[in-house]
Each structure stands twice: as structure tokens, then as C-alpha cells.
Design goal:
By secondary structure, the protein is of the alpha/beta class. It is built from 21 helices and 19 strands. The strands form six sheets. It has a six-stranded mixed β-sheet with strand order 2-1-3-4-5-6, covered by helices on one side. Strands 15-16-17-18 form a four-stranded parallel β-sheet. A three-stranded parallel β-sheet has the order 10-13-14, covered by helices on one side. A hairpin with a 5-residue loop joins strand 7 and strand 8. It starts with a helix and ends in a 6-residue tail after the last helix.
Length: about 625
């Protein structure tokens, strides 16, 4: 039986078979006999999650814009289909051709979160590809990775042939062009190719470096073992967002996905400098798209997909310098076409009556704000740079506009957090509730009931942030603090509180700041049955604990200790343009509860403008 015949024979035996068949509107099918390079773009999670990811949409369309390149989508099967695949010898395949991924030239993974690592190994194995790079000879595809987690790729360094640091719109085509050229002139070998692309800015080849350790288990140094490797690998950035590639079509799924709407990126980077936020630092410098570009993309995507909702995407959309003009231009189109406009990443201090009015013209979307901390002192520690008055003013404005539901995001376990800060979350919610009930124009009856949803994640220290030196608090302490929060909220019917699972955040903290010794731990966990670890129903913390024990690794060493400023971090040989001196300075200011102004107000000297040779704001 062919791969296609095997697939068709199994689809009626699984839930959501439309995940596994391809053929959706705007998917790209090419004649493989006329294609020079085939790329399997792998998202290490299920179709419903992966199809919502903007980066995949951009790079899928970018690669397929070249006639001689063909990029196909690959997702992790759910356990029911995986079991059938293994029972019937069906290899993991690309959705466009239904060909096994071991027949492709490149197999590329996007690493969006650390909890996907065992799924990467599982997908390689399902595709008939050895998981360790040392076990793959010339007959296997090149296996690569990109995405935010590769700012510390060391826990997966033995898996990938190379990784792409930073933004991929330009470098992805460069690595495919080099491969195509070497294949055509007969100079290709895996080793020769890796030595060639090691000279390309943004490319890190882990096997070209060796690492040694001190007696206390910390990293001693990284040593170059191939002369083609640079001493430090600098991330790639796209300098001009208006000239960057952006698709005019998205693949439209047959079934509902997590974010089932058109998405338009409006800017990249962030001016705020929240000290816990990895994305705010690794995506610097701050770059905006023009209103004309944004409006053009919105119209193209809505017309080519039929979506009735469009979301403006960025780390902080309301920080766009021309946001009022953008919303005015967009609503002229979206209101006429009955398309809902969503602004999911909105700063509390930028929420205004004009913005609220624009967002309500077609359909009233929910409002989400992220104070992050319950007291002003702790918000200063994390450099959130919003006041309680900002929070209350935004909520009061929302209530005057008819809103009865507000979602608030907070973190537990932040550096310098006290029990008083935790209780402050509920006290802030009480003040918001008082504002609602003091509003004489509030909706009455059942439809006028206030709901405040408080979602509390556990703080996880991440590389390339001022808090990369900080410990994650222990599981017992997390549960104690969660208990304080739930106790303070007891009996408040308007308040819904949810807390993230502490074991998941423990492992995420370990993998985020881990080194190469964790490769074998991840492999052991996968062999024991771990995969799709970001899903509560599949996560097996006990198996992970066994894997750490068997490999002589200690979770607390990676997650729960303070790291001195002079310690060599596993990612110190990688350059994301933000200087370590700046991170140390910001860490010191955090412990003194001192804030740093936004980049637009005053340059904080993070080093990005020096590295890029341009001012962030001109």
C-alpha cells in the first residue's frame, strides 16, 4: 500500500480526521518532479495548535513563493492516530504530498515552548529519522530548528544539525539557496554544507562546539572544534518590516482551530522592558509596519480566506506610534464588511475611549489586561510601568462602555514577591468590582453580572532576560502561595481564579536554562512515553522524574538556584544583541524596585542599537 492508501484506510478510526488529510483552501501542491528542494515544516504539537501559529503561516508562504522550492506542513498526531500509524507502519508525512518526511531535503521544527521537546523526538522517530544528529548519515534529511526557544538550544543540541537564531524571513531562503547550489554543482556533503552555512549570520551548528564543565556542574567554557564556526553566533533580524515578506493568503482549515481568524502582524519587538518577558528582549529592536501595509494585509487575508475576524498581532499593539490612524483606517473596511477587529495585546495604560469604540463597532470582543502583580512595589520590581490608577481607569472605561467581563493576568513566584503582594491581587480585583457596581449605567439583571477572571501563571526565569539569574521557587512554595491566593478569594462570587500546574512550570524552568547534558534526559523521557507535554492529559511528571534520576541530573540545579553574574550560561556563546551588562544592571535595579523608562521615552542602553548600527527610534 502507498502512504496515501494507508492514510485513507485509517482516517475513519480516529477523532478529527480532517487534521490528517490536507487539501485545505490555499494549501500549496506542486509537481515534485519540478522541485529542487523540499522542506517539511514541522510544528511539534497537534494540528489545532500549529495551524494557529503565525510564524508557520509566514514561512510556509515564503518558501512556496519560489517555484523550485516546496514547503509542506507537518504536525504531531494525537495519540489515537499515532498508535494506528505505528501498528500499520505508516510514516509521518507532509500534508500536501502525503509523502514521508524522511524523503524531504530539510526537516525543520519551530520551537515555541520548551514542553514540545519530546514531541520533536517522537515526530522524527515517526518519520523514520534517527533522533540524534550523530546517527544520521547522508541519506537522511537535514534536521534544523528555529523559534524563540533556540535562544538556548543546548538541551536539544545533539538532536539538530543546525539552528536558526532570530528571524527567519531572509535566512531561510539563503540556506535553501546554498543547498540547491551545492547539490547542482556536486559539492554537497552534509559536513561541507554545515561548514558553508556556519558562515551565514544567524546559523548555529552545535556539533562545531564542545563544552566543558566545572566541578560544581556549571559550564566552564565552550570550545570551537571546527574552524568554520564563529566564536559567537549573532541572531538575524529583518531591518525593514514594510519590506519583509508577508503572505496574502492563509491556509484555511476544514475544522475549527485554536485561533481561527486572520492575523496581521503590526510591529516586532517591544519598547517596555518587562524584566520577566523573554520575547520583549529577544525580538528587539522595535520595528513598526506602516498603516498602509497593515491595511493592505488585512484586506488581502480577509478576502482570500473568508474569515470574519482579524487580529492585530504583536507584543504590544497599542504601542504602535500610529495606532489611532491604523484603527480608523481598518474600521472603515472591517465595519463595512462586518469583520470583527481584535486587539489581543493591549497595554492597560494605552486603553482609551477611541480604541474601545473602534473595537466594538462590529462585535464586542472580551477585554484582557495584564497587571502581572498585585502591588505597585512588585510591578516596579518587574518594570511593568503601570500604576493601580492605570488599571482602575481602564476597567472603569470598559464598564462605562458596557463590558461586564474582564480577564486579568498575574504571575506568582516573581523575584521579591511577598505574601502581601499575593493578597494584593484579590484587593485589586475588589477595587475593580467596586468600580463596576458604582457605575449607575451598568447593565442590570442576569446579563449585568460582573465576572473577573484571574489567571495566575508561575514565574519561570528565562535566558536573555534580567531575571535569567533568578531561581524559580520550589513546588511546595508555589502550592503555599497558590493557597494564600485562593484563601483570599474565598466567597467572592464575581471572581474566578485559575492557577497553572506547578510541575509543568518546574520542568519548563529546567529546560529553559538547561545545558547539553539534558539531551539524554529528554531522550530517556521520550523513550518512557513522554510526548505532547504541554497537554495536561498527556503530561507525565513521574516519567520525567525517572529520566532525571537515571541520568544523574538534578532539576533543582537547573531551576531553583540563584546564578551569579559571572557564571558562564549555556547560551553565552549566542548573541541576541542585548548585552549581559545591561541584563545585570536591570537585575540590580529590580532588587531595588527601581524602574526603567520605555525605549521611546529614553534609551536604556541595552546594546541593540550598537549591534545593529541604527537607532531604535529616529
Amino acid at each position: 500500500m502507498t502512504n496515501k492508501e494507508k492514510i485513507e484506510s485509517l482516517l475513519l478510526k480516529v477523532k478529527n480526521p480532517s487534521r490528517y488529510i490536507g487539501g485545505e483552501l490555499n494549501s500549496v501542491v506542486k509537481d515534485k518532479s519540478k522541485v529542487d528542494v523540499r522542506f517539511a515544516f514541522c510544528f511539534p504539537d497537534t494540528y489545532d495548535i500549529g495551524m494557529s501559529h503565525l510564524g508557520m503561516k509566514i514561512l510556509y508562504s515564503l518558501k512556496n513563493s519560489r517555484d523550485n522550492y516546496w514547503c509542506e506542513r507537518v504536525f504531531s498526531p494525537s495519540p489515537d492516530f499515532e498508535a494506528l500509524m505505528r501498528e500499520n507502519g505508516l510514516l509521518l508525512y507532509g500534508l500536501e504530498s502525503l509523502d514521508p518526511i524522511n524523503e524531504f531535503d530539510f526537516v525543520g521544527f519551530t520551537l515555541q515552548y520548551e514542553m514540545c521537546y519530546t514531541t520533536v523526538l517522537n515526530m522524527l522517530d515517526l518519520g523514520g529519522i534517527p533522533v540524534y544528529s550523530r546517527d544520521r548519515d547522508e541519506k537522511y534529511p537535514l534536521v534544523m530548528a528555529g523559534g524563540p526557544c533556540v535562544c538556548n538550544p543546548e538541551p536539544m543540541a545533539d538532536i539538530f544539525d543546525f539552528v536558526v537564531l532570530g528571524e527567519g524571513e531572509e535566512v531561510n531562503l539563503e540556506i535553501m539557496d546554498i543547498y540547491c547550489e551545492m547539490k547542482k554543482n556536486g559539492s554537497y556533503s552534509k559536513k561541507a554544507y554545515l561548514e558553508r552555512i556556519a558562515h551565514v549570520e544567524g546559523i548555529y551548528v552545535p556539533s562545531f562546539y564542545d563544552v566543558s564543565y566545572n566541578e560544581d556542574g556549571t559550564v566552564k567554557e565552550y570550545t570551537i572544534i571546527n574552524e568554520n564556526a564563529p566564536a559567537k553566533v549573532k541572531k538575524r533580524i529583518v531591518a525593514d518590516m514594510d519590506r519583509a515578506f508577508y503572505p496574502e493568503k492563509f491556509v484555511v482549515p476544514f475544522s475549527e482551530i485554536v485561533h481561527d481568524r486572520a492575523v496581521v502582524e503590526v510591529l516586532r519587538g517591544c519598547i517596555r522592558g518587562c524584566r520577566f518577558c523573554q520575547a520583549g528582549f529577544i525580538y528587539r529592536p522595535f520595528r513598526e509596519k506602516s498603516a498602509e501595509n497593515i491595511c493592505h494585509s488585512t484586506k488581502c487575508l480577509c478576502e482570500s480566506t473568508g474569515y470574519e475576524e482579524v487580529s492585530l498581532s504583536s507584543l504590544s499593539t497599542s504601542d504602535h506610534a500610529d495606532i489611532d490612524n491604523i484603527l480608523e483606517k481598518l474600521t472603515e473596511y472591517t465595519e463595512g464588511e462586518h469583520i470583527n477587529l481584535a486587539l489581543p495585546s493591549m497595554r492597560i495604560d494605552k486603553f482609551s475611549g477611541d480604541i474601545m469604540e473602534q473595537l466594538q463597532k462590529v462585535r464586542k470582543s472580551g477585554l484582557t489586561f495584564a497587571p502581572e502583580a498585585g502591588t505597585q512595589r512588585l510591578r516596579d520590581v518587574i518594570n511593568k510601568n503601570i500604576t493601580e490608577e492605570n488599571v482602575l481607569s481602564a476597567c472603569k472605561l470598559a464598564f462605562s462602555g458596557g463590558y461586564t467581563q474582564v480577564k486579568l493576568y498575574f504571575m506568582l513566584g516573581l523575584p521579591e514577591e511577598t505574601d502581601e503582594d499575593i493578597i494584593g491581587i484579590v484587593k485589586l480585583a475588589d477595587k475593580i468590582a467596586d468600580l463596576f457596581y458604582a457605575n449607575p449605567d451598568r447593565p442590570k439583571g442576569k446579563n449585568g453580572r460582573l465576572t473577573i477572571s484571574v489567571s495566575c501563571a508561575t514565574f519561570i526565569p528565562k535566558p536573555f532576560t534580567p531575571f535569567e539569574f533568578e531561581p524559580r521557587i520550589s513546588d511546595d512554595e508555589i502550592r503555599r502561595r497558590q493557597g494564600i491566593l485562593m484563601g483570599a478569594a474565598k466567597g467572592k462570587k464575581y471572581l474566578n481564579i485559575s492557577c497553572h500546574h506547578s510541575n509543568v512550570s518546574t520542568l519548563e524552568a529546567v529546560l529553559a536554562r538547561g545545558d547539553r547534558r539534558l539531551c539524554d534526559v529528554i531522550y530517556s523521557a521520550w523513550k518512557k512515553g513522554c510526548r505532547l507535554d504541554g497537554w495536561d492529559e498527556y503530561f507525565r511528571y513521574d516519567l520525567w522524574q525517572e529520566a532525571f534520576l537515571e541520568n544523574g541530573a538534578d532539576m533543582d540545579f537547573y531551576a531553583c538556584r540563584t546564578r551569579p553574574y559571572d557564571e558562564v550560561m549555556p547560551w553565552d556563546h549566542l548573541d541576541y544583541l542585548v548585552s549581559k551588562r545591561f541584563l545585570i544592571r536591570e537585575n540590580q535595579k529590580a532588587h531595588n524596585a527601581q524602574t526603567t523608562k520605555s525605549c521611546r521615552e529614553q534609551c536604556a542602553g541595552c546594546g541593540v542599537n550598537v549591534e545593529t548600527g541604527r537607532e531604535c527610534f529616529g
